Structures are given as structure tokens and as C-alpha cells.
């Protein structure tokens, strides 16, 4: 277990937040709405428990993530949010109050629980249609405290039909001792549908590539992914300190790693090679850094500015991933190429609401086709696919992504150590 990561996070984020769980008081309007949804002619309510009252579940001005909104879109009056599990019960209260104030259906009977055990006692073996696990990864993914939240949830809510677990699936190095594989097995043993929050797997452009690969009977020869971060206004300490959120490959480029594996299949982790440009390297000096890295991050914890990794897939194909902390302004630049014999694909603008896909079918033409997917909402597609029992990314696949991203980070760190020994 990486000692410093969870401990640092624990101290900063959740000190003394645990309170008694309690039921949120109902407005009479909300009570009537719930009563209506239980009327004989109404569809059966779709029951949900949120784990984490934060941005992924309830939205943020910084991005499109907001699982509660997608569930409201999907289920309307048949949504019934049974409760929110969060040690920060005050934050959960605020989220419910905001929903009730907006007149959003489904929150009239929502309970607040500080722990999974409290939720388990209150629900007493009740079946839950969906549990969304959106707590920070420092509390998840491992077999022992403080990161055994998944196991506590599985024990407390054993009759859950579907789980959606956010990325990354852990924040500790993936090892037998930390137990990430045990957590995957525990989810598998529930027999439930278990999806993971890699929403780029749900992009329409990704589906278009998959369909053409299948229709033409293509084999993927290689994948090339890149993730260029706009760093000028990035001020969260976690972005700059590897000890807090495991560094830019595990935390950010993980989305592109997951897409790479979707097309390349499982990777051979022992084949991963990584080169980095670090803060001490001349090309790694950043001119627009808006964060006091110098005094607030230990040199050994600073993030690489440029990471270039390559690996073999078990299929024989080759994958590569480049992450750069290099863009000024606020707009990130991401791209995925999938290369097959005769047909090549390039997906860009993945963080916008109109991703574009370039296809070159050089087996029949030298033209490049451009497909734009306007108003693509992968978060909605992801929720809909999970509800239908076919998640676009499974927990098992998300664990493979996690293992690959750590293998990339560790190969880079190993190379730096070897270089230092040689000098
Ligand atoms: N898929 C995506 O695009 C996407 C986008 C944003 C965030 N995320 C992921 O979602 C997760 C949460 O991120 P966030 O931005 O919502 O964080 P956040 O800090 O806004 O909220 C996290 C919440 O979890 C609560 N929490 C802490 N320990 C808990 C525990 N043991 N049990 C239950 N709740 C607990 C915290 O009190 C906090 O309210 C992270 O893994 C993040 O990477 C994914």
C-alpha cells in the first residue's frame, strides 16, 4: 500500500465528518410525488443508492459529469433515490435539498447514511436496482481499511442488481497485498452487473469504430493514444502531486488507456516501456504554471511533464500512449488512433459535445471520411447501457486499465532510477 496517498487524502478530506445517519425531512410536495409513483398504475420505481455526495454524482461547473442528472433523464417519475452514503452528511443534505428545491422527482424519501453499515441496517436486505460508487479512489479498490469501501458496500447491500464504480478503481499500487483482484472477484461473486465509469468507452465514435472493425472483419494492429493537459489554470494540488492522486497517467490518461484496451485487448504488462520528461529536465520547465509547485510539492512527488509509453498487447498488437503537461489556456487535446490493415481510425475532440472521427479506408480510397457526432452524451449512454445490463466498460476491464496505468508509471520511474545510477 502506498502509505502517503490515502493518509494524506484522509487528513485533508474527511477529518471528523462522520455523523449519525438520518432521514432527510420530506416536503409535503415531495411526499405526494413519491406516493404517486407507488400508485398501482405507475411503473415500478427504479431504486438507486449514491455513494459519495460529490461532483461525479451531483455535478460540477468544471465538466459534464453528473450521474444523478442522467438517471433523472432516464427514469423521470419512476426514479426513487433510496439514499446517499457519505461521511460528509452535511454535503449529502445540501444535495438533496437542492434537488427538492428544483422540484426534481425521486428525492422525497432519500435517506442519508454516514457508512455502508448504516445503509445496510436501514435497507435490511432490500433489493436495490443500482448503486453508484462515486467516493474518492483512496477509499476503494483494496481488501483492507481505509480502502475497503467496495467490500463494505457489497456486504451491506448484497441484493444490488447493478453497480457503477467510478474510475480509477483504486489509488494504491495494484498488488496481491493491496488486494485489487480480490475486490474484482468479490464484485464478480455478487452475480450483479458491474460497470465502471470510463465514459469514453460509451462515445458514439467508439461504437462506430467497433462496428466497422466487426463488419470488415479487421484485426487491430496498433493503438496510439494521446492526452495533452492544459495546465495553465490547473490549481488543485492533486494534479501536481503524485502522492495525492497517483500522477497524470493513473489519474488523467487513464481514460485513454481504457480506450486503448477496448480496441487492443489485454496488455502484456511486462512489455511496458516508458520514457519521461521530468521537472528537472530542461524541456520540462513550464513557463505558465499557475500553482506554487516549488514550495508545496516535494521534488520526488512532482509529476512528469511528458510521458511516452509503449507496450505489446496479448493479441500481438502494439499500444502507445503519450501524456503531456504542455498546453496553455484551458482546452485539453485528446486523440485515439486505431490502426488496422487497410483501415485506420482517428477519434478527436473526445471532451467536447461533438467528437469527430476520421476514417481512412485505404483499401478502397485515399479519401478521409469525417464523421461528427453532435450532442454526444457518453454519460447518458453509459447509464442506459448499464441499466440494460450491458456496461460499455466492466469492472474487470477497469482493473486492467488500472494495472496498465501503474505499469506505465512504474516503468518511467524505474528508468529514471537506472539513469541516475549510471550517471
Ligand atoms: N468518469 C468521469 O468522467 C469522472 C469525472 C469526475 C470524477 N470522477 C471520479 O469520481 C470519483 C469521485 O470524484 P468527485 O469529483 O465526485 O469527488 P468529490 O470530492 O467531489 O466527492 C467525493 C465524495 O465522496 C465522499 N466520501 C469520502 N469517503 C467516503 C466513503 N468512505 N464513503 C462514501 N463517501 C465517501 C466525500 O465526502 C465526498 O463528498 C473519483 O474517483 C473521480 O476520479 C470520474
From TrEMBL:
Residues 203-342 form the Oxidoreductase putative C-terminal domain. It holds the Pfam family ox_reductase_C. Residues 46-197 form the Gfo/Idh/MocA-like oxidoreductase N-terminal domain. GO terms for molecular function: nucleotide binding. Gene3D superfamilies: Dihydrodipicolinate Reductase, domain 2 (3.30.360.10), NAD(P)-binding Rossmann-like Domain (3.40.50.720). This is Gfo/Idh/MocA-like oxidoreductase N-terminal domain-containing protein. It comes from Rhodotorula taiwanensis.
Amino acid at each position: 500500500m502506498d502509505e502517503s496517498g490515502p493518509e494524506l487524502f484522509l487528513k485533508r478530506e474527511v477529518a471528523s465528518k462522520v455523523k449519525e445517519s438520518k432521514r432527510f425531512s420530506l416536503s409535503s410536495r415531495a411526499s405526494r410525488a413519491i406516493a404517486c409513483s407507488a400508485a398501482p398504475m405507475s411503473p415500478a420505481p427504479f431504486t438507486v443508492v449514491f455513494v459519495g455526495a460529490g461532483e461525479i454524482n451531483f455535478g460540477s461547473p468544471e465538466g459534464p459529469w453528473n450521474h444523478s442528472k442522467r438517471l433523472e433523464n432516464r427514469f423521470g417519475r419512476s426514479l426513487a433515490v433510496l439514499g446517499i452514503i457519505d461521511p460528509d452528511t452535511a454535503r449529502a443534505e445540501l444535495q438533496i435539498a437542492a434537488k427538492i428545491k428544483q422540484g426534481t422527482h425521486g428525492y422525497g424519501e432519500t435517506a442519508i447514511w454516514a457508512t455502508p453499515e448504516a445503509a445496510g441496517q436501514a435497507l435490511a436486505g432490500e433489493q436495490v436496482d443500482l448503486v453508484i460508487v462515486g467516493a474518492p479512489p483512496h477509499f476503494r479498490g483494496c481488501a483492507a481499511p481505509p480502502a475497503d469501501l467496495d467490500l463494505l458496500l457489497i456486504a451491506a447491500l448484497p441484493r444490488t442488481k447493478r453497480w457503477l464504480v467510478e474510475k480509477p478503481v483504486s489509488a494504491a499500487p495494484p498488488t496481491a497485498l493491496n488486494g485489487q483482484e480480490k475486490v474484482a472477484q468479490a464484485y464478480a461473486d455478487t452475480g450483479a452487473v458491474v460497470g465502471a465509469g470510463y465514459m469514453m468507452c460509451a462515445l458514439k465514435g467508439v461504437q462506430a469504430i467497433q462496428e466497422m472493425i466487426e463488419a470488415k472483419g479487421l484485426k487491430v494492429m496498433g493503438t496510439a493514444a494521446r492526452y495533452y493537459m492544459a495546465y495553465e489554470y490547473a490549481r488543485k494540488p492533486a494534479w501536481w502531486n503524485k502522492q495525492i492522486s497517483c500522477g497524470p497517467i493513473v489519474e488523467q490518461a487513464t481514460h485513454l488507456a481504457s480506450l486503448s484496451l477496448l480496441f487492443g485487448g489485454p496488455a502484456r504488462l511486462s512489455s511496458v516501456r516508458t520514457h519521461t520528461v521530468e521537472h528537472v529536465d530542461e524541456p520540462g520547465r513550464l513557463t505558465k504554471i499557475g500553482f506554487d509547485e516549488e514550495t508545496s510539492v516535494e521534488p520526488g512527488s512532482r509529476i512528469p511533464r511528458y510521458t511516452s509509453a509503449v507496450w505489446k498487447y496479448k493479441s500481438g498488437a502494439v499500444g502507445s500512449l503519450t501524456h503531456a503537461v504542455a498546453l496553455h489556456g484551458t482546452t485539453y487535446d485528446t486523440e485515439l488512433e486505431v490502426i488496422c490493415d487497410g483501415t485506420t481510425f482517428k477519434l478527436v475532440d473526445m471532451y467536447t459535445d461533438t467528437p469527430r472521427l476520421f476514417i481512412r479506408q485505404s483499401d478502397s480510397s485515399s479519401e478521409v471520411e469525417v464523421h461528427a457526432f453532435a450532442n454526444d452524451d457518453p454519460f447518458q449512454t453509459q447509464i442506459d447501457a448499464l441499466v440494460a445490463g450491458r456496461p460499455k466498460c466492466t469492472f474487470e476491464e477497469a482493473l486492467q486499465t488500472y494495472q496498465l496505468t501503474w505499469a506505465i508509471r512504474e516503468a518511467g520511474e524505474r528508468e529514471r532510477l537506472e539513469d541516475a545510477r549510471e550517471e
